[in-house]
Design goal:
- It is a single chain.
- By secondary structure, this protein is mostly helical.
- The protein has a domain of 25 residues.
- Helices cover 45% and strands 0% of the residues.
- It contains 2 helices and no strands.
- The radius of gyration is 26 Å and the shape is elongated.
């Protein structure tokens, strides 16, 4: 029984190499949130959070 065949450096598959890397622009957290929520949703969430904060502070 001999040694197993050597694999290419880094373990890359010569027959199925990875596709080219995609360079995606940097997105801030706010950019991702804006993709999922409308401006109206954002206004409603902000109003709800401010109301809760004011209740805790006794301003309401």
């Amino acid at each position: 029984m001999g040694l197993p065949p050597l694999r290419p450096a880094g373990g890359l598959d010569q027959l199925n190499p990875p596709g080219p890397a995609r360079a995606e622009p940097y997105k801030s957290h706010l950019a991702y949130v804006k993709e999922r929520r409308s401006d109206a949703d954002g206004e409603a969430l902000l109003a709800e959070a401010l109301a809760a904060l004011r209740r805790r502070r006794g301003e309401f």
